[in-house]
Amino acid sequence: MSVNEMYVFRPFKLIALLCVFLALCLDVVALLSPAWVTAEHFSLSLWESCSQSEARHQTEEAQWSCFSTLTSDWQIATLVLLVAGAVATLLAFLVALISLCRGTQRRHYRTVAVLLFTAVVLQACALVLYPIKFIDGTVLQTYHEFNWGYGLGWGATIFMLGGGILFCLRTDTGCGGCMNRTPTTPPPMQPAGASALPVGIRDEVAKLKHRELSGQARATDAGRFHRTLTCISI
User: Scanning 20, 47, 150, 156, which has the fewest C-beta atoms within 10 Å of its C-beta?
Assistant: First the structure.
């Protein structure tokens, strides 16, 4: 940065970095969440499906049985899309953090924004695919609801989108010569009505005024010379 140039930095990029960090945290919690779909005696996550069997006796506690969900194609596809989105978000966070620390912010803003928008597309595809395939392949005998794990996935996607938009905004405005600027002298005041005259007439008026002032100066000098001669003769 030169001496005569300075940049005004606004905190939008720090807010964008915070959004990316929150999106990454929410995405990790959503991936590890045990409750994406819940019902009475039933719980479904990205990794396993658990159901609670009925107790044979009142004094006996009902047991939960779980099995892996990675045997279904659509659940594997959902998990792969979410993991890919999380990886893209992690890369965007690292690039943004390094560029902000080194002071090369504008050089990598576009890369960070592209990574975040890619993560948004991957996350949205996974979050739309999951409920469609779940409802299509499950006989709903009881009331099911999409729980907080699924909601955190959408929350992470929203923060990714907000961070990508903020990284696209140009918030560094250059100001060339703002620090060393020479003050300028205002132009002389013109008499009223002079600005309304054409250029040629204004020049002639200026010449006449100059001649008039020159004539007055000559007359004054002649008078002084005459008084000087009179004093000498006396």
Answer: 47
